[in-house]
Structure formats: C-alpha cells, structure tokens
Amino acid sequence: MDLQQNISLKAYNTFGIDVPAEYFIKLKDIETLVEITSLPHQKHILGGGSNILLTQPVRGLVIHNELKGIAIIRENDEHVWLQVASGEIWHELVLFAVNKGLGGIENLALIPGTAGASPMQNIGAYGVEAKETIESVTFWSWADRSFSTYANEECAFGYRDSIFKQELKDKVFITSVVYKLNKHPQFNTSYGAIAQELERMGVKELSPAAIMNSVINIRISKLPDPKQIGNAGSFFKNPTIAKVHFDILSCKYPGIPSYPVNEKMVKVPAGWLIEQCGWKGYKTGETGVHAKQALVLVNYGNAKGSDIWKLSDEILASVKERFDIELEREVQAW
What we know:
This protein has 334 residues and is of the alpha+beta class. Helices cover 24% and strands 27% of the residues. The chain has a five-stranded antiparallel β-sheet with strand order 6-7-12-10-11, with no helix packed on it. It has a four-stranded mixed β-sheet with strand order 1-2-5-3. Strands 13-19-18-17 form a four-stranded antiparallel β-sheet, covered by helices on one side.
C-alpha cells in the first residue's frame, strides 16, 4: 500500500487550488480498497476533482480513485449493459458508447469527472440525466466492510442528487456502475442549442456521434477548459420555483427563461439570474465569474478556495435579494 504524506492536491482538482492532503493514496484495485478500510483516518474520495472546492488543507486520507474497466455484461436486440469501474473518465465512457453506436449518454459529453460521480451527482446536461441509463450501482461500505448493489430505484435520484449525497454520504465508496444503453436510441435535441448546432453542422441523419459532437461544440464555445483556467463547470444548480412565484417575476422581467417541471413548478436557469445581478465577467483578485458563462466561477491563477467560496456567498445573497430565489451550489467544499 503506497500511502503518501503531505501531498499537494493542485493537480487533482480542476480549480487548481494548491492545498496539501495529510495522507494520499492512488486506488488502483479493489484489494487496496479493502486494505485501507482498516486505516483510522477520515476518508475523502477524489475522482476527477471537478466538483469540489478545496478551502483548507485536507485532514485524513484522500483516496484518488483510479479503478478502471469497461465491460459489456449483457445485451439483447434493443439494449447493451455496460459495467464500468468508478474511476473511468466520464467522457471516455461517452466515447466508448458512441463508437459502438449506443445511445443514452451522448448528451452528457465532455462533462468532467469520473463514472463514479455520475450516480452520486446524477449528472445531467441538455435534457438528459444519468439516472435515465443507470441500471445499478455497486459500492463498498466502510462500516460494514462489505459490498452492496443498489438498483436504480433504490438510489433516490433527484436533480443533481442521490442517496449517495444524502443518507450514504461519506459512508460508502462507489466501485462500479451498470448502464443500460440503447441500440436504437431516441434522441433528445430539444434542449438548449443542440438543434441549431446540428443544423449548423449540416447533419442530415441523427446519430449518437452527431449529438455528441454538437454538445462538445456547444460546451467548448461556452465553458472554459480547466486546463487553461481553473474552474469546476457549473457552480450552481438551476432552481425550481413555484409557478405563482415565476408568474410574478415574469411580469417584472418579461424575458425570464424557464422550463416547466409540472403544473405547479418551474425551473429557471441560474446563469440568467446571476447575469441579471451583474456578476458575469466580474473579477476580484485572483477569482471571478467567467465572461461567457455566469454559472462558472474561475481561478485566474493563485486564488484561494476560501476566496472563491466567499464570492459564491455574495452571488447567492444578491440573487436572493433581487429575485427572492435561493440558489444551491453544485460544487462541494472540502
């Protein structure tokens, strides 16, 4: 077991925040997972580092998930089931599926992070959520020292939420996920600018590859590359508000965009709310709000995680004051 001490986490988080981990280990096999369970340190799971903000040195053991493997475990005339190790890079899984002509996750192209984060966060983009393809999730319980598998309906999936962020938070380690993908997919092109981008690309026949490439083009045009400028993608969730509340806002702001959830609730883009409050392109010190996408907070070089968190507090307060809407963060602070 290669346990390291006082290791900088700068290279392991997409914000590029430089703080040390008290203990650090690269997890490459299940045997090591079982072995480190006996260690007394508090355990922190780190995948792609794309959904965390490091605000202080991390006490305890940081486990960098490097479990790998994608296998077809079952198929029929309509579907293929893939068992994917939790350390697999998410976009690599999307490429794997698309290269085999399998549909279901092409709208989720270029989302940073690992496969293990997909059920935890119930990642989503462009009208699709991971829960629509997840068949089951297998995890290791730190306390019970045993493996369990939850079917989709046991995972309590919600908007950017699951049982793994709630009741099982910090209690389990996701080791693999089974995805049920389609050989004859029905494509979702109604959300965002996908239809327009497909037209611009001259696509005549829809396919998983065409959808994926359109999403990649859109994301590249709107979101900064973490390799160029530190960020964690969307920092805030899109809030769901009562339709009565929305109707009041739409009288004052006729152009406010929305997406119906049901007869009583409406989802409003957080980016629009933040932009209306004047934050888009804002910069203070080494941190700020991206000039092209108000949902994205950035590290311009040597920002402290605490400074970025403070900025997010100020954004939350301003949206609450102007729209009476309480935004929630997607990114979690360590």
